[in-house]
Amino acid sequence: MAEMQTKLEQKPYLLTAGVIAAFSCIYLVNAFVCDDAFITFRTADNFANGFGLRYNIIERVQTFTNPLWLFLHVIPYKIFRDPAVPHDAELFYYLTLTVSYIFSGMTCLLVTKLVPQAALPTILAVLVLLSSKGFTDYTSSGLENPLTFFLIAIFFVTYLSGIRMADGVRTCKLTRICLIASLLVVNRIDAVLLICAPLTAICLSELWGRGFSAVRAMSVGFLPAILWFGFSIIYYGFPFPNTYYAKLGLELEPQLIFSKSLAYLFTLFRSEPYTFLILLWGVVAALSLKNFRLIGVSLVLYFVYLMKMGGDFMGGRFLGAPFLVSAIVLLSQAYANMNETIGRDIILTLSLISYNLIFPSSVLKAYDLPPGNNDKNIYYPASTPLHIHPVRHFPFTVFGVVEGRKECLNMESKESGVAIGGGGLHAFCQGPKMTLVDPLSLSDPLISRLPVPKDLDPLFVPAHFKKPIPKGLLKSYEEHRNSIEDRELRRYYQKIINVTQGPIFTWQRAKDIAYLNLVRPKYGRDYIAD
Question: What is the rounded CA–CA span in Å between residue 118 and residue 125?
Fold first, then answer.
C-alpha cells in the first residue's frame, strides 16, 4: 500500500487520471437532462436566431436565472448547428451534457487539491463528493449547477489557501476573488449567499488596509455583475429574473411555507441521509472553527433563504451547492494538522464504498430513484445517455408528445399564435412564432406579479404557483394591445407593456421601470380572471 502510494505521489498525473476515470463512470450512470433546462435553451435558441434574449419574441422578459450558463451554450450552438435545422433541441442535449461534464469534472479535480496529493486522501475526497445524489444528480441535468459547483470550488480553494498562508484573508488576491464571485452572481444570483460572508470579510479587510486601490481592484472584479445588472435593467426593465417575482415575495401564510420547508428537509433525510449528514456536519464544523466560521454563516444564510422559498420540487437541485461547501470544509479540516491519517482514511473510504453498494438509491443505482426528486424521476429514463437508441437519436422519448427529433421539428408553429402553456421542451419545439402564456407565471411578466389565489391548493408544489389568467390577457397578446378587463390591473399592465414591449430608450419607459421596481401594485386577489 505504502509502495503504491509513493509511486502515485511521484506521478501525480496518475492521480488526476484516476479522478477523471472515477467521475466519468459515475457521471455516465447518473447523467440526464430535465425539462426546465429547455426554458433556458428556448431563449438561447431565439438569441442565436436573431430574436434577442427572449422566451417569447414578442416581449423582453428574463425567464432564465442563469445568464452565464446560457452564453456558454449559445456560442457552441451557433458554431455547430445545422443551418437547415434552425431550432435543434438534440444539439442542445449533447452540448449541455458535454459542458456539464467538463465543469463538474474540473470541480472534482479542484476539491482534490484541498487534500494531500496521495492516493488515499484523493480517493476519499472523490468518494465524499460523488456519494451524494444531491451533488451527483446535478453534475448534469442541463441546469446551471455544474458551473455553480466549479465557481464555488475555485472561490473556496482560493480563499482557504489564503488562510493557510497568512492565518487570515489578506493574502487572497482581491481582483481574482471578486471576479469569481461576480461570475457566480451572473451564473445564479442566489448562489452568492454561499460565499457572501467570506467575500464581505475579504473586501472590508482590503478596504481597511489598501483604501482606494482596493476599490479599484473590486471594481474590476465585480465588472461582469455590474455589466449584467446594468444590461438587465435597461433591456428587461428589472434587475432580477422573472422567476424571482413569481416565486418570492408572495403573500402566503408563514406557517404554510414553514410546513413545506419541513417536508422538504424530511424528504431529503429519508431519501439521502448521507447528503443530510454532511450538510449538517459541515455547518456545525464551520461555525465551531475560527478559520471556517464565515463559511458557516454563509451556509446558514443560504438555508434561511431556501426555507423562505418552502424548499423546491426538484429534490437536490438547491442542495448540491451547499453540500459541496460543507464537503470542502470537512475535507480541509480533516487534513489541517497533517497528522497520521491512514487508518482513519481507510475506515472512511470502506464505509463510503459500502454505503454506495448497499443503500438502495445510491449513485451506483441511478435507476432506483428516491422520492421527492421529481425532475430526475420523470426525465432520467428518457434522457440518460445510456438509453440512447442507435436509430432514434433524439433521446427524449417520454417528454409528453415529443417522441423524437422529427416530431419536435414537426411541432414548430409556422404562423404566429398564442396558447396557454410554458415549460421547456414542448415550448422549445413550438418555435419562436408561438407566444406561450404560462399559468405558473415563470415566463409571464404580469401573472408573475399577481398574488396567489385565496383557494390555493395546500398540496401545491414549492415555488410553482398556478394562478388564474387575467381576463383579456390572451386577447392582449393576440391583438397586440392592452385588453385587460379589470380597470386597476389594466393600468398596471400598460406599464408592463411599455417596459417589456415598447421602445427601449424613452422617458416614459424609464418612469415605468422606476414605478414597477419601486411601487407596490394596488390590485388585490379579486382581479377578473378567465
Answer: 11
Task: Report the sign of the C-alpha dihedral through residues 467, 515, 306, 104, in that order.
Answer: positive
Cell 386597476 belongs to which residue?
Answer: 488
DSSP symbol at 33: B
pLDDT for position 166: 45
CB 345 within 8 A of CB 169: no
User: In this structure, how many other beta carbons lie within 10 angstroms of the beta carbon of residue 143?
Assistant: 25
Average pLDDT over residues 455-481: 81
Per-residue pLDDT at 167: 45
The Cα–Cα gap between 332 and 327 comes to 8
Q: Specify the residue for cell string 459541496.
A: 324
373 vs 366: CA distance, rounded Å: 12
Beta-bridge partners for 436: 419
- Residue 87 is given by DSSP the state S
* CB-based contact 406:424 (threshold 8 Å): no
Long-range CB contact pairs, 251-259, < 8 A, 24+: 251/451, 251/452, 252/452, 252/456, 256/310, 256/458, 257/307, 257/308, 257/309, 257/310, 258/307
Nearest to 190 by CA among 287, 103, 302, 91: 302
pLDDT digits (tens, 9 = 90+) for 342-370: 888 889 889 998 888 888 777 777 655 55
Q: In this structure, are strands 434-437 and 417-420 parallel, antiparallel, or unpaired?
A: parallel
Q: Say how far residue 463 (Cα) sits from the centre of its chain.
A: 14
For 279-322, how does the pLDDT look when each residue is reduced to its tens digit (9 = 90+)? 999 999 999 998 899 999 999 999 998 888 777 777 678 889 99
- Helix spans in 81-195 (H): 89-112, 119-130, 133-136, 145-166, 174-187
Q: Are 162 and 55 in contact (CB under 8 A)?
A: no
Q: Which residues pair with 417 in a beta bridge?
A: 434
Q: Widest CA span of the chain, in angstroms?
A: 81
Rounded (10°) CA dihedral 301, 376, 269, 144: -20
35 and 144 Cβ atoms separated by less than 8 Å: no
446-467 burial string, b = 16+ CB within 10 Å, else e?
Answer: bbbbbbeeeebeeebbbbebbb
Pairwise CA distance, residues 489 & 530, whole Å = 14
Least confidently predicted of 84-93, 163-172, 336-345, 352-361 = 163-172
Binning pLDDT at 50, 70 and 90, where does residue 524 land? low
Q: Which of the 8 DSSP states describes residue 419?
A: E
Beta strands in 426-502 (DSSP E): 434-437
Q: Residues 114, 157: contact at Cβ < 8 Å?
A: yes
